[in-house]
Amino acid sequence: MVDLSINFGGIKAPNPFWLASAPPTNSGYQIMKAFEAGWGGAVWKTLGVPVVNVSSRYGSVNYRNTRMMGFNNIELITDRPLADNLREIEEVKKYFPDHAVIASLMVESRAEWEQIIKDVENAGADGIELNFGCPHGMCERGMGSAVGQEPEVLKTIVEWVKEAAKIPVITKLSPNISHITDPGLAAVQGGTDSISLINTIKSIVGIDLDSYAPYPIVDGKGTNGGYCGPAVKPIAMHMLKDLAQHPEIGKVPLSGIGGIETWRDVVEFILLGATSVQVCTAVMHYGFGIVREMEAGLRQFMEDKGYNTIYDFAGKALPNVTEWKHLNLKHKVVAEINSDKCVGCDLCYIACDDGAHQAIALSDDPTNRIPSIIEENCVGCNLCSLVCPVEDCITMVKKDDGKQHTTWHERTLNDDIPTTFDDDRAGGKGHFVPKPSDALKK
Amino acid sequence: MAEYKRPTTEAEFEKNFKQKKPLMNDTEAYYESSRCLFCYDAPCIQACPTSIDIPLFIKQIHTDNVTGASKTIFDANWLGNACGIVCPTGVLCEGACVYNHQDVPPIQIGRLQNYATNKTIDAGKDIFKVGESNGKKIAIVGAGPAGLACASEARTLGYEVDIFEAKEKPSGLTVYGIAPYKITNEEVLKEVEYLQNQLGFSIKYNNPIDTPQAIKELETTYDAIFLGVGLGKTATLHLDGENKKGVVGAVEFIEELRMKHHKLKVPAKVVVIGGGNTAMDAASEAARMGARKTVLAYRNSREKMGAYGFEYDLAISAGVDSLFHVTPIAIVGNGNVEGVKFAKTEIVDGKLKTNMNNTFIVRCDMVIKATGQAKQGHFYDLISDLKRDDKTRIEINNDFQTSNPKYFAGGDAINGGAEVVNAAYDGKMAARGIHNWLTK
User: Fold this and answer.
1) In CATH, which superfamily holds the domain spanning A6-320?
2) Active site includes A280?
3) Domain interval for residue B79
């Protein structure tokens, strides 16, 4: 029997689907509506120092016919009075005592931190999330990502908070940093109960070609925003993996954030070690109702695989995410084109010829548009299978017998580092490279 | 099956002749253009008689470079707007779209093309450059698609161009002969105006070239002459009673319809004779004009018809009935047509034979003959040494030059009757042929 409930570092929730601290959690109205729709938790839009906002706040990256593949914002933390937010937290908790209501906080001085923690605890919040990630506006005032980028400062504030707080503390990290493990470790050393990541990435999503200003445009000017949405998911997953694999950081629960929209995204984040997920852009695009698809998909996956709780498979992909030097150099795959499915767009041909390894040939017969693989030139890079528009038309077929295994690491240990270019898959050795002048014949 | 009320106002006419390929709006164009795969050496380009770089213009539409898209289209085809609408795209570019192989609807290339060109034409954006004058002059006979394309291309090469047109409007069959649900007069004429405004060729309307003197004058005034004369009137069938009132040629019928719209009266029962695309158009149009019964009669089987399948389907969907394996042997009636006497045909030893023992009469008030147009033989006789093949099509070489070196030709005059897009290609290539010849 599938049980989706979680205990995330002391914060209990009926399921791992949480709303990230953002515009969808700006009010009790929105959060109650979300809980009704099926969300298990919500991180309240960051409470803190008084702010004012600008008009024109969001920008988008559209890709072909997909709107908001990437999304950015220059909105600040909540601009609603603290008292209103606290009263609404209390009300939400009255209606939904078993759902997780987490207060995201961002203030400056130790005294302010202590006061606001007391306030949200009194309102009945189940936990606190420290906003050390916001990369626009607030960081110019020394808060948000300005803290997330200074591990020592971050650690100090976590220590203040942990001393003051009676409820669990989540530290939310900024991705605008070279090594996510630096602030991650600082948070753990400061005593955080758990970590969430990623906050948004500093970005410019586009320039208006008439006014020459970046989006979103505020009276002819713009500023960097925080980037999120489906486009940032790969970056978020990589950072999540870095924390989950870290011997110390990996011990605290991790809440995954960044481009999550479907059940597949959720499962992938869990496989990389997340035990709760937070969603914003997808809700800003489609509304709270998308949780139906996420929950149904997650349940189906768990039933199909025989898992009872998400802890049964959390982090299951982590052992398979390794360093390049541990990859088997003897593994070999070659592309195969299913001529029954091929539509003859020849994108694989041109992608390989112009963009990869010249391992696909066209037929000499102009009426036959089905290309063929030149097996000796195919390095198994996958490009053709990635550009092919037909489902399951180009597959990568394993060609090695699975008996041989050599890694760069092993070769290093065996003092077997090449002194000449001896890769069988490289041009000029096992594989032919056209002459430069052949380019002019076509 | 649709049933059409006789249109009595222009609005009712427009309703009955609703555009088959309506103009796309911005949102439609945005989503449709996003679907193009940008195939390598794309099959749609290969299927286009004018080789328009279709994936390029679709990408240009998608990236909001509509002017660039129009330039890509017009660079290959001077009648890019009309062709986007009237081309049988289902058997050309869209028929070649690779999506068809996975049962995914092909990209609506024609409508996207029209979306771009229509915007550019409406905005009056200049995208063509007239070539530096080389002092030479070209005469073009016929302002149809071939002539217009030849004129446009010749202007970019620096020639002065005069087109001589027998009728009062340009575009030939595009205006006079294509079904009104395919393209409107307005749509055709604005493209010609757009080309003319930028390229500055002259069209002399109501100016038929039909005398030896006129030919002589052209020959002495111009350095080269392009014949884009198309085809003539509907050929006679040599049937008993063919001259009765109510027996008309399809080309003449469609021309009258295109010019008069709802003011043309079509009687209750119509028989259309023929199996080509023009027959389908005429039948469909008679039905849309409110004929209660329209019968299409063809001498062979449905499969043997020259018309595209989709054209036949369109006629059937308009409420047209069809008779196969019948051939007309007489028109009956007393002054006015009252019916067509048909004989059944059958295949004997692989050949189509008429069985005169099996005849019947189909009652009707109008007969439309869609059995092919006569060639312009009498006109060709005015020109010395102009060789034609056994089907009276003007013979040309690779440069579209005729046996009389001063004359070049293209369009229906050389192919016996094809699409607007073929004529557009011929005209353009003939202008280049003329240029090759004059700069030799």
Assistant:
1) Aldolase class I (3.20.20.70)
2) no
3) 21-123
